[in-house]
Amino acid sequence: MILAFGLLGAGVAAVAAQPATRNWVATVATTSAGSYVIGSPAAKAKLVEYLSYTCAHCAHFVGEASTTLKRDYVSKGITSIEVRHAVRDPLDLAAALLARCDGAARFLGHSEAIFAKQGEWMSKGIEFHKANAERLQGMPQPKALAELARGSGLTALVQARGMAPAKAQACLASKPATDQLVAMSGEAWQQRKIPGTPAFLINGTIVAGAMDWAALKPQLDAAIK
C-alpha cells in the first residue's frame, strides 16, 4: 500500500509539473499601427484580415469562419490573425471605435458581437442618418459619431457587454483613436489598394478572390504545410 501510494503520488507530481497549454486565442498584441494580432507570434501562417463593420461580406465571413479559425488554427499556435480596419463610412468608424474601446483583451469579443448584430444596428443607423442628415452634418465629428452610435443602437450593444457609458462616449470622441483608424484605413485603401472587404494577406501576400472561408481555407492550409 505504501509503495502504491508513493507511485501514485509521483504520478500526480509528474502531471502537475507539465506546463499548461497556452491559450493563443487570448493572446493579443498591438502593432505600432494600432492593429491587433491574435495568436502566437511564432505562427507559421500569419493571416491579415482587412474588415469593415458595415460590410455584409465581412459579417458573413466572421459568422462562418470565426469559430473554426479560433479552434483549429489560432488555438493551436499555427495561425495568427491580424485585424486591420478599412473604414468606409461614419457608421463604420463609430463601430470600430467602440470595438477597440476596451483595448486588445476585449477587442475580439466586441468585434464578433458587433458583426453578429450587424443587420439590426446597421438598418437602424441608416434610417437614423437619413432622418437626421442635416443636423448631423452641422455637428463636430465626435458629437455626430456619438449620435450615430446612439441612434443605431451600437452604444447600447457595447453597454450590454459591460462598457460604461462614459467610456464609450470618451472613445467616440477620441481624436488619437480616430486618427489611428483613419491612418489604418489609408494604408488599406490608398497604399495597399485592397479591392474591397474582407481582404486577406497570408504571410504578406494578398489572397486574390478570397471573400469567404471556402476560398480562404485551402490557401491557409497550404501555408501551414
Automatic annotation (TrEMBL):
Keywords assigned: Isomerase, Signal
Chain ranges of the Thioredoxin-like fold domain: 33-221
Pfam families tied to this protein: Thioredoxin_4 (PF13462)
SUPFAM superfamilies from the UniProt entry: Thioredoxin-like
One Gene Ontology term of the molecular function aspect: isomerase activity
Signal peptide location: 1-16
Listed name of the protein: Protein-disulfide isomerase
